[in-house]
Amino acid sequence: MCGIVGATAQNEVVNLIVDGLRTLEYRGYDSAGIAAQNAEEVMIRKEPGKISALQNSLVKNPVSGNCAIGHTRWATHGKPNRENAHPHVSGNAIAVVHNGIIENSAELKQLLVNCGYRFASETDSETIPHLVDLYLSAGNSFFEACRKAISHLEGSYAVAITFANEPGKIIAARKGSPLIVAQGEQGFMVVSDVIALQEKNQIVYYLEEGDIAEVSADNCEFYDSKGKRVSRTGTRLGQSECVATKKDFDSFMQKEIFEQPEAVRATLARRLVNGKVSERLFDKGSSAILDGVENIHIVACGTSLNAGHVAKYWLESVAGIPCQVEIASEYRYRNPVVPPKTLFLSISQSGETADTLAALRFANDSPYLGSLGICNTNNSSLFRESEAAILTKAGVEVGVASTKALTTQLTALALLVLKIGELRNTPDAVLHNIADALLNLPSALDEALKTEEKIKEVARSISRHKSVLFLGRGHHYPVAVEGALKLKEISYVHAEAYAAGELKHGPLALVDGSMPVVVLCPENNLLEKLSSNIEEVKARHGQVYLLADHDISSQTCRGAKNTIEFEGGDSFISPIIFNVPLQLLAYHTAEFLGKNVDQPRNLAKSVTVE
Ligand code: G6P
Prior knowledge:
This protein is α/β, with parallel strands linked by helices. It has 20 helices and 27 strands. Helix content is 35%, strand content 23%. The strands form five sheets. Strands 3-2-4-1-10-9-11-15 form an eight-stranded antiparallel β-sheet, with helices on one face.
């Protein structure tokens, strides 16, 4: 999604902006631009495509200044071309970069056209500089003009605005999209993601909903949406929050797949004490949020949603608590019924996904028992707006296709299931088994990573196909869904997942000698049923690839084109472990096809618009 990097300092900042934009590349974008300001003029450069195109343009036509705003755009309104790239300007004096969507832009545009403004782009964002200009022309100060302009915006926004007549000043504001002001040694920065901060150890201020900040090289003042001065507390940024390097790996995704044992270890650390879940599970609020809980609604998007689907199986079978899992963009518009004593649980790696946040806001105004968030980003909107929160300790995840965030979400969910089981009197023996299995999870993940070389062989043959089916049963069904999602996200090979029992109700029609079918084959009470489903595929000459527990019977494997065996672990944690070969499969298929695994086309890391 779009990214913002702005800086105002005592020294030249253009390189700082370009370097910051580079770190935001992982979020997904299709054009980039910069507006640099010195005492004489505002200079704009923007280019469609990669940041390298912008850098080439800056080599040919350099810009300089002590104050600048930069942007990476992920197209929503209008094509990814130079005209639609940010910054947008009014009268070549006001420059604006914007993340989010202005929902009333058509109306605002009409009003501005009636006032004589001409639009150079198809974007919703261009309304903002013209609105600021309109208020400046009416005699308002720069700050007041921005505040009044922003008060007209409906939808979501994070903006940074500069004005030629006020060199060195950036007005920053947010609602529904994250924005951070950071104080460094040479001046201040305004960024949409801390990862864009080049200088470590900065003091960061997370703007709250509706906040406006007036930022200059040596000072920053915060105001609420009514223009009333407010104070915001800064926190010092730790090294780990902003460092993201590939180390010796070919891509961030590959590195993140291999970081999973460590990320899970960190997520478990100090949270399981003598087989019981400690209060440290909660990074905000406490287990009191679970008092009297009788139902759970889980809401999320993408990979986080798949984590929620696994948790439903766990919650109902281990803790005996009814659970409903829902896509955030559906939930928020359908007036869901909230049974008494229902907990709202949202899951999000970024904590900034627009639909998940909207669902959380709806839930906070509904008669839920409380809202609990599982999130990888401290201080994200989801963390701040949930009554209680559990942080996953995956560290920065850069690959657009989520890997270690998922495994740590599942780990946090497993701990939550244990905690709820304790409260609801699940037999101790069951809970102890799960606790032991969780403690063993990091080494089990290490073992699963050893399948890489064998998985490569499967990936080589999968990469020759246009379509793949994934099958699973029980709590491995959502894992099959995640495997299919991963494959299509980064290799663009069409993939679909089915609960294996559904095969004969439709997808079996697709199976012939050219259809690869990847089957998740754990050793559990459903294996016999699953074996029958595998026979159905074999009978139609489908190419069966089994990802299987070491000890499954040779009868099940007979006739499979390829069987990859590994230690799937205890039945409870098995869905977490089975993710690993599926991630490697997607990764190596994409590699064989020469795709950019870290930045798949059309996708964004953090989807901050609806
Ligand atoms: C985007 C990402 C996915 C992610 C989903 C939800 O679509 O590309 O990898 O699963 O958003 O993101 P969240 O940050 O809410 O987990």
